[in-house]
Structures are given as C-alpha cells and as structure tokens.
Write a structure and sequence with these properties.
4 strands, four-stranded antiparallel beta sheet, single chain, alpha+beta, globular
C-alpha cells in the first residue's frame, strides 16, 4: 500500500488509483453535505489496509472503491 498526502478531487483519485479502496480526510463539504475538498490518507487493493487507517485516524474520513460496482443481480467475493 502506498500512502500519500495531497489535496485533489474524488474523481481524480478514482482515475489515479483504479480498482482500489481509497480513504480521504474530509476537509470541506457543500450545503448538501457533498465532499468538496479532501486529503488522501491512503489507497490499497486490500480493504483491511484502509480499515486500519480509518481506525487510527481521528478526523472525519470518507472511504470508497474506485472500481466498477457490480450491477443488481451480479455477485462478487472479496
């Protein structure tokens, strides 16, 4: 797992780290609660690495998968 600290957008993180779990610290949200600024805390193909970062971090975080989510009726295993 590679850890970096940089400010960017959620969409650019998805492009930089395809098919990976990503965790960011939320720095700002708009009136609707959407994340508008975030700082990356880590990314990994292994969600357990991301869970570990989440448990150790005290700030507000947002975790997401940058790959394609299977459509309804499809299954996958991690």
């Amino acid at each position: 797992m590679m850890q970096m600290m940089e400010v960017d957008t959620i969409e650019s993180y998805k492009q930089k780290y395809p098919d990976e779990w990503i965790i960011v610290e939320v720095l700002a949200r708009n009136d609707q609660g959407k994340v508008t600024d975030a700082e990356i805390l880590g990314h990994s193909k292994d969600k357990e690495n991301i869970d570990r970062i989440m448990m150790e971090h005290e700030g507000l975080t947002f975790t997401f998968f940058s790959g394609e989510i299977p459509q309804r009726g499809h299954a996958f295993a991690l």
